[in-house]
């Protein structure tokens, strides 16, 4: 379990490669279009996770420090290694894999693809504003994989299965509930400033280490100045 917790995003990369061969050599000719899109959606999430944590990486510190504002223990709070494993592997895999086996339940697939679509708000807008940069780890997969798959899924249902198109609306509240159950609630429940499950150093500084370190120092200085001002 320790090996899996430490290397889950690399294992996800291997799964992506395996799925690429399966879909290229067999799946794309023997599955329904809906099931193909749902598998592609999961593959997009696997790339998204690899981009965040492996290459270019650095998402844990960017999220904890730049995104959420933690300056004391951003290496383990509020996101920590155990919580990320539970969220990204156990909960996320289930939420992406289960709809693949029920492609006729359009509302279920809509929850899956919309959950990926909302990543554009976090990675494409909110995180870039916080970082004052045009890129953050996870954005490329969101823009070039997850968002196009979601758009094609919606288009395909509306065009070829119009009698089920109304189920797409359930994907909006369903995907929000999915994100809450998969990521937000686990972060709240498992956050611990004294957690023994700190991220490894190579997980923290994958992307623009010098800039992130500088930003960390600036955030700590801002917090100290604010506390000093409040204490006057």
Protein topology:
Blueprint: H1 2-30, H2 33-53, H3 59-67, H4 81-97, H5 106-117, H6 119-131, H7 139-160, H8 171-190, H9 201-204, H10 209-231
Helix pairs in contact: 1-2, 1-4, 2-4, 2-5, 2-7, 3-6, 3-10, 4-8, 5-7, 5-8, 6-7
Count of helical segments?
10
Number of strands: 0
Content-based structural category: mainly alpha
Radius of gyration: 19 Å
Which spans of ≥5 residues are poorly predicted at pLDDT below 50? none
Shape descriptor: elongated
Give the ordered list of helices and strands: HHHHHHHHHH
Round the mean pLDDT to the nearest integer and report it. 93
Strand content: under 5%
Kindly state the percentage of residues in helix.
Answer: over 70%
Which keywords apply here?
single chain; mainly alpha; 73% helix; 232 residues
What does this structure look like?
The chain is an all-alpha fold. 73% of the residues lie in helices and 0% in strands. It is built from 10 helices and no strands. The radius of gyration is 19 Å and the shape is elongated. The termini are far apart.
Quick synopsis:
The chain is mostly helical and 232 residues long.
């Amino acid at each position: 379990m320790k090996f899996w917790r430490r290397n889950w995003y690399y294992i996800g990369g291997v799964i992506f490669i395996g799925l690429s061969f399966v879909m290229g050599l067999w799946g794309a000719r023997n599955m329904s279009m809906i099931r193909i899109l749902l598998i592609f959606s999961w593959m997009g999430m696997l790339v998204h996770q690899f981009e965040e944590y492996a290459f270019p990486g650095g998402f844990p510190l960017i999220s904890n420090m730049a995104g959420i504002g933690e300056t004391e223990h951003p290496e383990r709070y509020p996101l920590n290694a155990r919580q990320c494993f539970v969220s990204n592997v156990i909960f996320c895999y289930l939420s992406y894999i289960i709809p693949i086996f029920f492609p006729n339940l359009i509302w279920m697939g809509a929850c899956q693809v919309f959950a990926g679509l909302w990543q554009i708000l976090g990675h494409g807008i909110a995180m870039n504003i916080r970082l004052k940069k045009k890129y953050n780890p996870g954005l490329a997969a969101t823009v070039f994989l997850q968002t196009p798959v979601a758009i094609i899924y919606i288009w395909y249902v509306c065009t070829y299965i119009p009698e089920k198109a109304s189920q797409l609306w359930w994907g909006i509240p369903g995907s929000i509930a999915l994100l809450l159950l998969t990521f937000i609630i686990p972060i709240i429940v498992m956050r611990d400033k004294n957690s023994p499950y700190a991220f490894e150093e190579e997980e923290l500084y994958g992307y623009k280490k010098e800039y992130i370190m500088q930003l960390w120092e600036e955030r700590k200085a801002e917090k100290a100045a604010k506390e000093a001002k409040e204490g006057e």
